[in-house]
Amino acid sequence: MALSKPFLSRLLPLPLRLRPQLRLLCLATPTPTPTDDVQAPADAAAERRRRKRRLRVEPPLSRGPAPQRAPGVPRSASNPNAPKIPESAAVLSGKRLDLHRRILTLIRENDLDEAALLTRHSIYSNCRPTVFTCNAVLAALLRQARYADFLSLHRFVTQAAVAPTVATYNLLLQLYCDCRRPDAALEHFRLLLKDDSPVLPSPTTYRILARSLAENGKLDQAIELKDGMLERGLVAPDTQVYAFIMGGFVNAGDGDTAVSLYEELKEKLGGEPILDGVVYGNLMKGYFLKGMENEAMDCYAEVLGDGSKVRFGAVSYNMVLDALGRNGRLEDALKLFDRMCMEHDPPKTITVNLGSFNVMVDAYCRAERFQDAIEVFGKMAEKRCAPDALSYNNLIDWLGKNELVGEAEGLYEEMAERGVNPDEYTYVLLIESCFKVDRVDDAVGYFNKMFDAGLRPNANAFTKVMGGLVKVDRLDEAQGFFDMMPEKEVKPNIASYELLLRAYVDAARLDDAIKIAKGFLLNESVVFSDEMKALLEGALEKEGRDGDMTKLYEDVEREKAEAAARAAEEKARAEALAKEEEERKKAEAKAKEEAAARASRAAIEAVLGRKKEEEEESADAPNVEEAEVVESNSDTIGVSDEQSEGDEQKRQESVEASSGP
Fold first, then answer.
1. Distance (Å, whole) CA 40 – CA 46
2. Alpha-carbon distance 411 to 393, whole Å?
3. Which Pfam families does this chain map to (predicted)?
């Protein structure tokens, strides 16, 4: 009889019967009970739902709620041409962070070529640079005004599908604004305003555009930009945008609009006092333009008096300082400058920069206190400010206009001592200064120094030195500089032609004047004005040379026709050469194709020949084997025959032996 399980358990000793209950004390799953069997599926399903809710990833934020897909409607395929969402800062980790730090090190070492090259090489590597790394290299190129390299790298990373951020757009807009191309900047700005754009403009975007439009005199477009900023509501009313536009109207002499813009900004901000001091400098200039000097000084006392909560930095202080210096308030400007120097406590508080000293130099020079201007210029090092070529040019310009050429030349020599490289404008200012005090040879010497310094003077520089020579009746030397322009790959401008034409007419050198007029008419990049035409015709009529003007136009038309014929002939020759080159390339390509076809046929024939030989060898192998088998069989048959003959002979001998007795 078989023992049942309960009966067996009663026969077991007590320690063995208690062993199943001891499982509760270990980490294993307890023995399920009938109740647990019912609740286990429900608890497991609930746990899975909780885990899914905990691990669920929320969709990214967008311009509005995501459209709901109707039941039964198939999911639409994503558009591959849709703008990509830029990466977040969280991707800057691991190897990509190491690459970012390596490129930043190259930027700090001023090795921008290597930084840009490493960025390009890393684009298609396993460690792809982030958009923040690309922005760092682009910003470094922009700071050094390497615009061509900037555009080349920007085009490369864009084609490599690196999604740009708003900082990338701002850098591109700043480049076009620095090149004085605000229209191109506006075209790129409109890309940010599209409905499918994943990037929205920032306050910096509007500030860059507002400043450029104001500086280039495009005030109507600046107002449209400001109104668009307010209508779209993407950016709150920005004080710096208003300040730049107010400065544009101040430079245009429209103080009423500048003041009205301040009142509009104050209304947009709820009527409360504006605590950003950047607007008050242009507001004071607007008051001064309107003749409201008392209101301007009341504004100054209110925002910079004791207990004022208006925040001022170096830029906003400089605007107020400039307003005082331009309107004869030098003493107030000096007090404010002293206050700025006392509050200056870098890096915590920065209230003085290079622009502050430039503004004070302008203020002293307007008051004809040039020695004080030179002294304050020399104090830049005390505030850790290093003058650049622009600062030197500003002071040299003031000194040269007031015939202080010795002091201007001293500043020029100081530039070399401090390692500041003079630019073309520096030499033009020195040339004008020397001509002003009748130092003609020194002026010509400064012009020649431009070539020694590796600079390329433009048409304006040539015109300056030609104008100085014309004033002292050295027309032949002026003509020599004019003839030098094509050799230096400089195109003469209208001012160059008009300068020499007037000089030759005044000197009654009409043949030379006709030559200049002929070059004027042949140069299609300039326009021979009616004024110059009337001047030359009047001079020729006085000398009784009325037909020379008609002959001049006939010669110009004939030379233009000859030049057009030569251009057409050269074009035809170039097209013929291009056609011959194309035919030659086609013939070479055809010959290569035929050679490749022959080589292919030879290879195929060789392969087929080898296969045929293998087949023949495989076919001959069975015949040889059959012959060997036949031969072996014949040998076997021969041996058996000999054996049978031997056996027969032995039987006969045995028979004969038995019959003999």
1. 10
2. 9
3. PPR, PPR_2, PPR_3
